[in-house]
Amino acid sequence: MAELLWSLQDSQLVARFQRRCGLFPAPDEGPSENGAGPADGEAQTPELGHLPAAKGKGAGEPANGLRRLAAPQLVMYIGQVTKEILKWPRPFSPPVVKLEKRVIAEYGMPSTHAMAATAISFTLLISTMDRYQYPFVLGLMMAVVFSTLVGLSRLYTGMHTVLDVLGGILITAILIVLTYPAWTLIDRLDSASPLFPVCVLVVPFFLCYNYPVSDYYSPTRADTTTIMAAGAGVTIGFWINHFFQLVSEPTESLPVIQNIPPLTTDLLVLGLAKFTVGIVLILLVRQLVQKLSLQVLYSWFKVVTRNKEARRRLEIEVPYKFVTYTSVGICATTFVPMLHRFLGLL
Q: Is residue 151 included in any domain, yes or no?
């Protein structure tokens, strides 16, 4: 078993896969990048001053909404933290060709892309199979194909070993099995108490602020904060819709088995219009909240606004990312549907 695990972690296995896909190293490829560390051309960034070491990485009834959010959030946070605990390096280059320079500084095991793809596809499958009429085998095949393609893409880009990808899929499968009995309860939490939004905000923020530190900066903490904040924002948006009765309650008892509507030209145009309106509003909110939150934090901690490195400081990066993407999540689930209704797009 140990020999098998070592073989699955071998960088040569990834390199052979890349060669099969037609990806070869450039003749003047630079020095090797063994293990996690700062990206090419990016010096190690010590923390500033006395701070701790920075680390990083539509309207409608929201049935099954929280379960689809909780699973990806949970697996992504566990996956990111597991990387910091195990500290397994990414595939060595050479022989592997690395196509993504931004995340070279992160560790490899497990592949959070594989975890997210598996969590999203299979929670979507499990959550919809008792609400829509479609062949289960077809849905299962689509979930398997999607998660497999994402896993293979991580090998192609040279970011993970085969063991990293398989480990991510296995961890996600275990988490889905362990949390499945609580899914119905999770879906009902949004209407349980007016204090629910406080818990949704405090717990993810605490987890992000106490994210494991490292000796050099990488975008892991920022990415994790973005994911947790967006999930918290969407969850609060569902709560706002329900608590203030911004959406109509279903008249039929759940589960309601529905047919998937056919894709017509009118439906496609309507979908594109709703997407365009929604994405424009979300981008405006993101830009506005990010700018305001950074200005407040810079003023509070007496930081020069032109200092780009200041964004990497723990007490600035986590709050501004969390506030920004929580606002984005609330906007996407509450204000965008309200705008759709106002414009007659619902």
A: yes
Q: Is 81 contained in some domain?
A: yes
Residue with tokens 């810079």: 298
Q: Is the pLDDT of residue 48 over 70?
A: no
**Range of 97's domain?**
11-20+37-250
Q: Give the pLDDT of residue 192.
A: 57
Q: SS3 for 27? A: coil
Q: How many domains does the chain have?
A: 1
CB 105 within 8 A of CB 158: no
Which tens digit of pLDDT belongs to each residue from 249-281? 554 545 555 566 777 888 888 889 999 999 999
**What are the tokens at 54?**
């920075």
Catalytic site includes residue 50: no
CA 346/CA 92 separation, integer angstroms: 51
Distance CA 232, CA 207 (A): 12
* Residue 79 resides in a domain: yes
* Residue 264 token pair: 């017509």
Distance, CA of 175 to CA of 39 (rounded, Å):
32
Catalytic, out of 50, 113, 242, 340: 113
Of the residues 50, 160, 242, 340, only one is catalytic, namely 160
- Please indicate, yes or no, if residue 324 is contained in any of the structural domains: no
Helical spans, DSSP H, in the chain: 2-8, 11-20, 65-86, 112-128, 136-156, 162-179, 183-188, 196-209, 220-243, 265-300, 314-330, 336-342
Cis peptide before 255 (omega within 30 of 0): yes
113 is catalytic: yes
* Phi and psi at residue 248, to the nearest 5°: -80, 140
Q: Kindly report the pTM of this predicted structure.
A: 0.73
Tokens of 131: 């609400």
Task: Determine the Cα–Cα distance for residues 339 and 141; give it in Å rounded to an integer.
Answer: 36
pLDDT in tens, 228-256: 898 889 888 888 887 777 665 554 545 55
**SS3 for 68?**
helix
- CA dist 112 and 169 (Å) reads 9
DSSP structure class, residue 182: G
